[in-house]
Amino acid sequence: MLPDLPPLPALTRAEGELIDRYLEAVDLLGRINPARPGETYHGLRAAQALVRKAAELRDALALMHRRGETELHGDTLARALRVLDGERRAARVALPPDGVG
Fold first, then answer.
1. What is the pLDDT along the chain (101 residues), one digit of tens a residue?
2. Integer Cα distance of 56 and 36 in angstroms
């Protein structure tokens, strides 16, 4: 049985969209990371998809701005990222420890 995850903090719809698009872009960057083993074709496909995700991420931020959501509430958004496994997902973007590929 899986452990109960903490609930997501209260987010506006636009903040939720921002978090979703951000994590999708992070996942793609992790697949492109040249310090990790893999096939160039998979990296190419991820890079192609990243263009679309970057536009969606831009659109999510633009929507927030248009709605008057002019501040990113870092603590709240960081909690949401942690609940959605953002730390593990973002770690794939970083260089792996020496000797780990």
1. 667 778 889 999 999 999 999 999 999 999 999 998 889 999 999 999 999 999 999 999 999 999 999 999 999 999 999 999 999 999 999 998 886 65
2. 26
The tokens describing 59, both together, are 């659109």
Tell me if 34 sits within 8 A of 96, measured CB to CB: no
The pair of structure tokens assigned to 32 is 């492109």
> 56: burial class by Cβ within 10 Å (0-12, 13-18, 19+)?
middle
Which pTM was predicted? 0.87
Domain spans, the chain? 13-91
**Using CA of residue 21, residue 5, residue 92, residue 71, what is the dihedral sign?**
positive
DSSP-derived secondary structure letter, 70: -
